[in-house]
């Protein structure tokens, strides 16, 4: 869903209250993502008190009776990412937001990788989901939506009805496995894990992506099965590669932002390890790594 689709029709105080009530979850995600990108520690401390208070403080500024919509930097939902504006609004112009490096936010025109600088995080999530949909069986996207229900209102309309019957008719243990698997594959794309040097084993990556990112016949295990049977060696190499991906996620633990933690959380299940049929030693290692990630909880 494009951010321009979400614009308040009524800029009275009552209209703004209704807009916030209807879209609060998305608004909070937008503010949290912008805060981690744009606010330095001093601004957070002196203006907002703490990072977890930023969403409520920005929403409160949006709901002041005297807000003049003609003076806003934009008038769609992405206005909540404009923390330079809201910080000045809160401090009556004395202070604005700054990036943690102290530099101003870059002009994205002509910047390599500018698509990664989208301030509405839901745009990036929607883009990744479209990529996933183009590479995996349709039912797997449905399992992702089932595991991430809070996002369905914003990005799931184009996949409406996807796998609903399949999800209902799948046993709870299997449903848990496929939901975790769908979320793990999503995060592989979303966090670009395949491009990280530490996991860039060309042969293993090729085999993993050939199996898990090609459409099959839309039936369990929701993988692509080639014309030749998969050898035991290839299976083991793929499992080893998956474990390296989990290790990489664990090493990224402190660098994940709040939205990334929310998106990763449904994948952090023992069911994921069961699905990949790791041996006992790899399962024990995987559970320890997933536990580390799960304990660094997202603020939902």
Automatic annotation (TrEMBL):
Protein name: Uncharacterized protein
Taxon lineage: Bacteria, Pseudomonadati, Pseudomonadota, Gammaproteobacteria, Oceanospirillales
């Amino acid at each position: 869903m494009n951010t321009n689709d979400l614009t308040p029709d009524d800029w009275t105080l009552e209209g703004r209250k209704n807009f916030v009530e209807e879209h609060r979850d998305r608004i909070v995600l937008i503010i949290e993502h912008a805060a981690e990108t744009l606010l330095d520690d001093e601004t957070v401390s002196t203006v907002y008190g703490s990072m977890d208070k930023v969403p409520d403080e920005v929403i409160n500024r949006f709901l002041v009776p005297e807000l003049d919509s003609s003076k806003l930097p934009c008038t769609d939902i992405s206005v909540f990412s404009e923390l330079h504006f809201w910080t000045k609004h809160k401090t009556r112009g004395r202070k604005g937001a700054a990036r943690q490096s102290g530099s101003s936010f870059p002009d994205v025109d002509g910047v390599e990788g500018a698509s990664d600088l989208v301030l509405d995080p839901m745009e990036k999530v929607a883009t990744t989901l479209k990529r996933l949909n183009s590479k995996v069986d349709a039912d797997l996207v449905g399992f992702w939506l089932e595991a991430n229900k809070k996002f369905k209102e914003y990005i799931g309309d184009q996949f409406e009805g996807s796998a609903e019957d399949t999800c209902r008719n799948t046993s709870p243990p299997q449903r848990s496995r496929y939901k975790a698997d769908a979320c793990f594959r999503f995060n592989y794309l979303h966090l670009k894990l395949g491009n990280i040097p530490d996991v860039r084993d060309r042969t293993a990556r090729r085999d993993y992506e050939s199996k898990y990112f090609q459409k099959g016949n839309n039936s369990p295990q929701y993988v692509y099965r080639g014309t030749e049977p998969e050898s035991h060696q290839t299976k083991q190499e793929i499992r080893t590669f998956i474990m390296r991906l989990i290790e990489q996620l664990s090493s990224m633990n402190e660098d994940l932002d709040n939205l990334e933690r929310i998106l990763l959380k449904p994948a952090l299940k023992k069911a994921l390890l069961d699905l990949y049929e790791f041996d006992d030693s790899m399962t024990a290692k995987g559970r320890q790594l997933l536990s580390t990630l799960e304990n660094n909880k997202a603020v939902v």
